[in-house]
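Appendix B, record 7
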Amino acid sequence: MKVSASQQDDYTFSYSTDGTSFHSVGDPVSGDILSTNVAGGFTGALIGLYATTGNDIQP
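Structure tokens (predicted):
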């Protein structure tokens, strides 16, 4: 799993099953809510990846 950030405060999430070829998950997410001049600094919001197999349905 990987998170990439752009210079425009956009974050892209992706995954790889072989560690080489990464596939995007969804559209880029804006990160301007994390720290803004309007908010006066860090807002307490976080962006991250989360994966689990705890909810996988087993036959």
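Remarks on this record: The mean pLDDT is 80. Strands lie at 2-5, 10-15, 23-24, 29-30, 35-36, 41-42.
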